[in-house]
Design a protein that fits this description.
By secondary structure, the protein is of the alpha/beta class. The chain has two domains: about 180 residues, FAD/NAD(P)-binding domain (3-Layer(bba) Sandwich), CATH 3.50.50.60; about 110 residues, FAD/NAD(P)-binding domain (3-Layer(bba) Sandwich), CATH 3.50.50. About 25% of the residues lie in helices and about 30% in strands. The chain has nine helices and 27 strands. The strands form eight sheets. It has a six-stranded mixed beta sheet, covered by helices on one side. Strands 11-18-12-13-14 form a five-stranded parallel beta sheet, with helices on one face. Strands 8-7-6-20 form a four-stranded mixed beta sheet, with no helix packed on it. The chain binds flavin-adenine dinucleotide (FAD). Flavin-adenine dinucleotide binds next to helix 1, strand 2, helix 5 and helix 7.
Amino acid sequence: MSLGIYKWGDFMKTLVLAGCGHGHIQILSKLQEMDLNDLKVVVITNYDRQFYSGMLPGYINGSFSLEEVSFKVEDYCKNPNIELIFDEIVEIDKNENVVITRNESYSFDYLCMNLGSKSIESFGPETESLHYVKPIYGFKELKDIGGGQDSLLIIGGGAAGVELALAYGHKYPGLNITIADKHDILLKFNDRTRKLAKKVLEFRNINVMYGVDIDHIDGNTAYYDGGEIHFDQALVSTGVTGVDINYKGFEVDERNFLKVNNNLFAADNILAIGDMVHIREFPHMPKAGVFAIRMTPILVNNVFHVIFGDGELESYVPQERYLQIINTSDDKAILSWGPFAMHNKLALKIKNKIDMNYMKGNLVTDSFMKRFEKK
Ligand SMILES: Cc1cc2nc3c(=O)[nH]c(=O)nc-3n(C[C@H](O)[C@H](O)[C@H](O)COP(=O)(O)OP(=O)(O)OC[C@H]3O[C@@H](n4cnc5c(N)ncnc54)[C@H](O)[C@@H]3O)c2cc1C
């Protein structure tokens, strides 16, 4: 497959892909099949795998292998014009068109960012007994944290916290698991989902502490107003904020999420996708993989439009309602849609089908690629 004429001349241009989340895996899977002529692609990421977070509970409870829940970034960089750099990005300068990492700087003609998010709460650096579910790259290391331990404290009772508690509970039946939440669990879900989840947690002997706002952690003790909780392992799952990158010359919001328009552009030659973006037209859009996934075809289309002059720009409109499925690690899941919820085997079947289809990579369709085939 070969590309047509470049929009801005036929001398060497550089596309930098910063981070390697869902969107970039899709772009790379297409670019690496092409004859890139004078386009050089530099991929900069800090981890060798890209995880599909929705499958993490299934990975922990033993239903799926590492290979089934993650992409190996190297496998998507086989084209000789694609260079893969493992490094930590610390600054991106819009006016100078440069990405600065801990060790190097990389100039670009086009930039696309897919850098995710990080935990909103920090109780200090990651240690042997303190872990964070975000950033996403630590997932491999999270698999065995309950092994050979007496107690696991999960801070935060959102969907991820509840799913992970149930997954570890399945994997380590004797493990004493506590979820501590400053409000109620599953606050963003409907009442029926919350009720079903509470019933499952109770049945599986997972202790839930409500209204507990953990203030700080010292060694193996978490402190809150009025008490303390001792643990062998603690896992923080309290929601996300922007990653620690200095976006020089860009507009960011108060949480360091990068502002983009609904075509996913931060500047004429710069796009971004996923958790890291604040879309001006949709400032209250939640941070969830389902949004990153729906943005992906728009991103791929618009990147190809900017670089190769192909097609028309497309706009992203977030879905108002979206399906959420919580894997309860008992061969069942809780499916939540609008005011409706059910807990059964069918829900898990639906979840597994959606997740596995995604991993097979059929988001950017063959008909899209046909537009780039040599006539
Ligand atoms: C346990 C769990 C379960 C979840 N389940 C669901 C679910 O079922 N459904 C759902 O919709 N959402 C779910 N989510 C939310 C989901 O994980 C995120 O919304 C999604 O991962 C965001 O994707 P992304 O492409 O923006 O970034 P990410 O997938 O986070 O990717 C970011 C990439 O950038 C790289 N990176 C980050 N910082 C740097 C840096 N400084 N330098 C270089 N590279 C960097 C990372 O290594 C990574 O490759 C879940 C989250 C968790 C924690």
